[in-house]
Every structure is written in structure tokens, then in C-alpha cells.
Amino acid sequence: MNNQDLVNPDQKIISTHFDQEGYEGFASENLKSLVTALEAGQVSVVKGMLDHFRAQDIASILEQLTREERKWLFDILPKPLDAEIFAYLAVPVREEILPLLDSETLADVIRRLESDDAIDLLEDLTDGQKQEILQRVAPQARKILEEGLNYPEQSAGRLMQRELVAIPVNWTVGETIDYLRAKEDLPKDFYDFFLVDESNKPVGVVPLSRAMRNKRVVRLADIMDQDLDLIPVDMNREEVAYLFRKYALVSAPVVSDDGRLIGVITVDDVVNIIDAAAAEDLLKLGGVRASEFYRSIKQTTFSRWVWLAINLFTSIFASLIIDNFAETIQRQVALAVLMPLIASMGMNAGTQTITVAVRALAVHDLKLTNQWRFFIKELIVSLINGCVFALVAVLIAWGWFGDWIIGLVFGVAMFSTLLIAAVVGSLVPIFLERWKIDPADSSVVLVTTVTDMVAFASFLGLAYLIL
Amino acid sequence: MNNQDLVNPDQKIISTHFDQEGYEGFASENLKSLVTALEAGQVSVVKGMLDHFRAQDIASILEQLTREERKWLFDILPKPLDAEIFAYLAVPVREEILPLLDSETLADVIRRLESDDAIDLLEDLTDGQKQEILQRVAPQARKILEEGLNYPEQSAGRLMQRELVAIPVNWTVGETIDYLRAKEDLPKDFYDFFLVDESNKPVGVVPLSRAMRNKRVVRLADIMDQDLDLIPVDMNREEVAYLFRKYALVSAPVVSDDGRLIGVITVDDVVNIIDAAAAEDLLKLGGVRASEFYRSIKQTTFSRWVWLAINLFTSIFASLIIDNFAETIQRQVALAVLMPLIASMGMNAGTQTITVAVRALAVHDLKLTNQWRFFIKELIVSLINGCVFALVAVLIAWGWFGDWIIGLVFGVAMFSTLLIAAVVGSLVPIFLERWKIDPADSSVVLVTTVTDMVAFASFLGLAYLIL
């Protein structure tokens, strides 16, 4: 593919993206052509290519570039800037780009974004900048943004759009259609009509498709669903995402403390949170801070450093136990050879149980009602696997060192290590959750420390007594 | 809360679910009341409570119960069965319940489900059962189901609904509304009109909200978007989910090889896949098979067993290295005390890098264009942290054993271990992905094995040379 293809205005780059075979390949090809053009400083070629990308693609491309390339590309983006680009940029990259904008450009971007994205963007600014930008926004929009900024950061209030279509419950289909045709400033897309009473409290919902299928004289109240999924404005957004997923919602009304309709959350706002919530657990269990991929080396080094330091500190406890049995090891060096095998197995078994527990807690599969059953299941699984691997351990040690006693000690230690890994691995996440500590954050360190200590203590202690 | 509250037909249990403060608490309370009533065998009380739950809630409740309770509850569910329950049940639980249904009930459930859910359910049955059920379905629906079953299991073809609203591109808003009002068998919910030409190829899309805001005489062709996100029927469903998330799609048309419109995928079908894709990486990195929470003890034991066995096997390589230096350890037992510290740090650093890489690969942040940059970044981070922790290591070993030489050896080993963890931890996932092996599945075992071996070899080898 050459640049000529890319700047051909008749070509629909976006639909080609969806070509199964070449999706990744094409995106990369496209990007490579862009980088080549960037490096050659071919402004007009790059500009021609940019016209064919959507906001999401421009955001991806900006993320992929180095700091210098990014600045250069950003400068030649078509003006006025597509405000949506800022809604899709990874936060570290966005933080890097925002200082490149003057206040008027930034205010213009804020004005053109939907309220939830605008608030998200304002949040990245200093208080001084925030005030300056807000002064440049029309009073009515400013009021909405200021209210939004007052909701807690992880709440439904931040997530919701204030632009919504609320219809008096006594209207007919025809009245509603006439209203829509006349009204100018409606949200870009909406999927449901929320019906409200005189005090602006939601009383029912009619999906657009249902309204369209009914005759003009039909009253909305006669075709509405009354089972409303009301989201309180201060509900945590991960909880919101969970409810959307569980009940397959497309949009849901957000209500204030006194039950009035104040906003709407649509599924496209929630899709990213569903992904981010699962990804956050993944990253935390792996000992990294959420989404550090685009963070600077300095930030990454520091965030890794913290977990490594905690890990070093807790590992010392295991080493202290080994130190206690230094003489036993000196007498029987086979112990030192086999120690890492037990530690590694305990670590592995513990991580398995933690992973299942953390995930099940996150999606509300693991609740008060079945915690006890989960624990018993993990216990039985570990008893069975403990027996199997104890037997294997005996055989390995015997085959290796030709000593049945060492084999026996190794086997018993293997059994108790797998058992303790399951017990601690299932109880720690459950209790952390109960004490409102994020189990994804702290479980691994706690469990491996305990498991290692028990592993070494049982192995070396037994060896000390028997050998 | 007592059961009386729950059977009161005026009470809206579902909206109470959304009460922030008590969401989890209430759900559990509710469930506990149900379990109490179940245990007391109060059929009428339980039945009264069941009327107030939605299909998703009934599915959750069935999942939470023991095998016996589940069978009992299932028997007293209101008939005819709410087909949707089967669309929401976790697969292992569904597999357990399906044999309880006779063919006619099952055929009835299949008839009432949307095609994508029906195909998903049919897939759980044996070929014989499948044929028997399909015979009981009307010919037209049967044809759709049979076609669906022919698409690859993870493909867009399985995910799509065949029920869609395709409108000839030359129609007006008024014609479309009249068609909707007259037509009987439309999908329950839809959000977009897909416009097709005479050969049934999609040429544009009009969101329902836009159609509603235009006058009856307006031609759909004049208000349609031509930038269509066409999904090829054989696209992998994780790729579909990624595209929905990236481009904030609500629905997208699925096309056959020759470009004809054959189905539609809506965002609610995709939400669960987005969650499942991220969760699968989480579980695999933790050494467990996807979604084993509701699997039987037998299945769980076996799936855990596989990874533990692989881990035991690979750990033996590290032990072999230690065995090579048995005499050195016997001479200087401090080495045995410090060994686990290095192994644990290498493991931790390796896991951090793997986790970032696996996640970035999954969401296409890590591509051919920036792999080299990712590797360099990981290298620099590990060089910095390597220096920091080498220094700490020297101090620990010196403080503990009062021996500068051991400290030095320990420090050098710590540095090389963190370095190798970053190198292997970043390269292994990238190359596995390139070779089409799932990096979430195999990276951890490969990387820890190499890291452990390098850790022990550098530590003990250096000690052998110097001490």
C-alpha cells in the first residue's frame, strides 16, 4: 500500500478496518504509512490521510506515536479540532496534549463535547484552568458542568449525560413525534423516552422502537414499562456497569436524592467501564497500577518499585524461617535444592484460588450466601491435588536423592503447602472485601507471604525433627 | 425483612435492587429469605417471591443454590418457563439444568428466544437432541437456527440476531413508520434502520432517534450515514467486541461474503464478551481456566491440576541448577537463605511486565509499530529498579550475614534477575502473540522458568567463583 491509496478521497478506510483478515495488518499498514509520511515531513500527505480517520482512530494514532511525533501530528490536525478525539485519548497521553491548547481552543472543545466527556476532560485541568475555561462557556452549560464536577469522581453523576429526552407521561405518540421534530437541541442519539410526572419523577420508559410502531393517538402511558431501573446519582460507576451488564440495559435514568430525573446513562458510556473494571483487577493482581501502558518511564518505574519493595520486605519473613534451619540445610543440602519447588507450587496454587475469588467477588458471583461453599470447594480441590502432588513429590525426591525419608518429608510439606495456599487464598480475598479493602490489590502479597512461610517451616521443621 | 414483604405484589423488588446503600445487602437479604423459604419447603411463599424477579435474577439465584435446591426451585418456576432465564445462566449451571427439560419444553424455550440465544443454547445439546428439538421448530425458524449453527463458534455469525429491520433505501420516513406499524414479527428492540439496495447490500444507516425527528416526507437516503461499520460474518467475536468498544457502536450490520445484509449485532450482545475477554486474560494469567467458578469439584480439580503439573515440571529445571551448586551452598548456607528472595523478586518483576504486555496486546495498544519502544521502556525501568534493588540487596545481605562479598554477589544476582525478568517478560508475550499462541496462557510459566534459572545460576554461579 502506498500513500497514494490513502489520500484517495473515494476510499473508505474505515470499512476496510473491519476486513477480518487484514484488520490488524491494515491498521498497522495505515499507521506505518502515516509514520513514514510524518518522518518525511510530508504535511500535505499526512493531512490528506487524517481526513479519513475517525476521532477514535486519531486518538489511537496519537497514542502510538512518540512524544515528538505526537506534538507534530497534533499541530497539523484539521481545525477546528474534532472534540471527540479528547474523549477517546488514554489519560496519560491526554494530559500530555492538553497543555498544547490555548484556553479558547480548549473552551471550544468543552462546548462541543457531551457533558459527561466534557466533565471528564475538565477534571484533568488545574483549578485555575478549570475556572478560566468555565467562564468561556455559556451560563446554562456552565451550570451543568459545575454540577457534574461536584459529584464524586467514580459516581453515576459523573457518568451520566444531562442531555436527555423526558416526556410528560400524559402525552401521545403523535405529540411526542411533533415535539421531537420541533425541538432543536436534543442529544445526538437516544434510545428510550423517559416518562415523567409533574414533579419530574420518572414513572415509565418507552423504547423508541416501540413508540414508532404505535399509532399517533396511542398514549405513551399505555405502552410504557413501569419496571424502571433507577440509578441513584451517587451509585459507584462499577456498580452501574455491573447492573447494565446484568440486566442488558441500553439506557437508564439517573435520579437525584428526591427521585427527580436528572440525567441518563447509556450503554456506550458503560462499555469502557466494564472493560476497565475487569482490566484493573488483571493489572492489580499482576502487581501493576491500572493502565500504565502509556505512562512515562518515571511514573512506571515508581509504580513498579512500590510492589517490588513490598514483595522484598514480605519475602524476608520466609528467608528468616530458612535462616532458622541453616544447620539442617548444611547437614542435608537436598533441602535447599527442593525448597524452591515447594515455594513455587504454593505460589501457583495460591494464585489460582485468589484469581477465582477476586473475579467472582468482582462480578457478585461470590456473596455472603455462598462464601462458605466456595471455601469448602477450594478446600476439597486442594486436598485432592495435595494428595496427588504429595505422591509425585515423594517420587521426585526419592528418585533424585535416593532417600525415602527426604521423600516423605518433601511429600508432607508439599501437601500442607497446597492446603494452606487454598485456605489462605480463599479466605484472604473474602475478608479483604468484607473490610472494604480491594482484594485485587493486596491478596497476592499476603497469601504468598503466608504460603511461603508455611511451606518452608513445614519442610525444614519436619526435616529438622526427622533427619 | 420478612417473606410477607416479598410476596406483596405491590412492591417493586427490582427497583429496590438499585438502592445504592443496600444493593448487595438487599440482594443477599432477598436471597436469604428465598433460601429460608426453600429450606422450609414453603412452595407458595417461594412461588410468590419468584414472580417479582426478572429472568436475570432467577438465573443468579439458580447459580447461587446447591444442586438439590436448584432442582427443587427449577421445578416450581412459573410455567411456561421464562425462556430468557436460559440466556443468562452460567454455562456449567445451564448444562446441569437442561437434562431436566423434556423435548417439548425445550423446543418451546428455543422458539421464544432470540436467534443468537437460541443457537447458544442448542450448542449445549448432543447432536441427537439438537435434531429432535429442531424438528419441533417451524421450518423458517429452523432454517435460521441451522444456518447459525454452521458458523464457527467464536464468530460474528453466532453473535448476530437474524431478526433485523432492513428498509429499502428509497423509502421515506412516513413509509417506514407505516411499515413498522403494520408488521407483526419485528425484533423486540432495535436502534437503527439499516438501508439496503435491491441486492440487499447495506448502503447506509439511520438511527431511530434521527428518523423520528424528521418529517414523514423526508427520504431516509437524505438523512442516512454512509460510513457503515460492516462486520464480516466470520469475524472473531472478541474482535467484534473490541470494535464496538473502540467506535462506541450501538448496533452494526453483519454481512455475508458477498456483502449482503444477513444479521445485526447489538451492543447488549457485546457487553458480556467485552467483560469475558478481559476476565479470561485475568483467569489465564492466574493459572485457571476461564469461568470455573460454577464448575464441579471434579472439573475444577483437573483444570488446576494441569497448571500445577506444568509448574512442577518447569520448576525442576531451577532445582537442577541449585543441585549443581550443592557444595557451594553447604560451604555458605547464607546462599540458601537468600535464594528465595531473588526468585520471588524475579517472579514479581516478570509478572508485572507480562501483565502489562498481555493487557496491551489484548486491546491492541501494543502493535508492531510500538513493540520495540515497549521493550526499550521495560528495559530502562528494569535497569533503574535493578540498580535500586541491587543496592538494597547488598545492604540486606551485609546487615544479615556481615559479609560484604556475599552482599556483592547477592546484589549482582538481584540486578541480573530483574533485568532478565523484564527482557523475557516483554519478549515472550510479544512472540507468542506473533506465533498465534495465546500469551495469557503460556507466558507466566515460560517467563518464571527462565527467570528462576537465571536467578539461581547467576547467584550461585557467582558465589561459586568468588566465595
Provide an overview of this structure.
The structure is a homodimer of 467-residue chains. By secondary structure, chain A is mostly helical. In chain A, 67% of the residues lie in helices and 6% in strands. Among the domains of chain A are: 166-285, CBS-domain; 297-466, Orthogonal Bundle (Tetracycline Repressor, domain 2). The first copy, chain A, has helices at residues 3-7, 13-17, 23-39, 43-50, 55-64, 67-75, 84-88, 91-97, 103-112, 115-122, 127-135, 139-150, 156-159, 173-182, 208-213, 220-223, 237-246, 267-285, 297-324, 326-331, 334-362, 371-401, 404-434, 439-466; strands at residues 166-168, 192-196, 202-207, 231-232, 251-255, 261-266. In chain A, α9 crosses α11 (127-135) and α18 packs antiparallel against α21 (334-362). The longest helix of chain A is centred in the C-terminal third of the chain and has 31 residues, at 371-401. Chain A is globular, with a radius of gyration of 30 Å. The termini of chain A are far apart. At the A-B interface, α2, α3, α5, α14 and α15 of A face α2, α3, α5, α14 and α15 of B.
Keywords, separated by commas or semicolons:
mainly alpha; 467 residues; 3-stranded mixed β-sheet; Tetracycline Repressor, domain 2; disordered N terminus; CBS-domain; homodimer; globular
For the record, what CATH class of the domain at 297-466 in chain A applies? Mainly Alpha
So how many helices of chain A?
24
Cα-to-Cα separation, first versus last residue of chain A: 72 Å
CATH superfamily of the domain at 297-466 in chain A: SLC41 divalent cation transporters, integral membrane domain
Neighbour order of strands in the largest sheet of chain A? 1-2-3
Low-confidence stretches of chain A: 1-26
Number of strands of chain A: 6
* Proportion of helical residues of chain A: 55-70%
The CATH architecture assignment of the domain at 297-466 in chain A turns out to be Orthogonal Bundle
How would you spell out the order of helices and strands of chain A?
Answer: HHHHHHHHHHHHHEHEEHHEHEEHHHHHHH
Largest two-chain interface: A-B, 139 and 139 residues
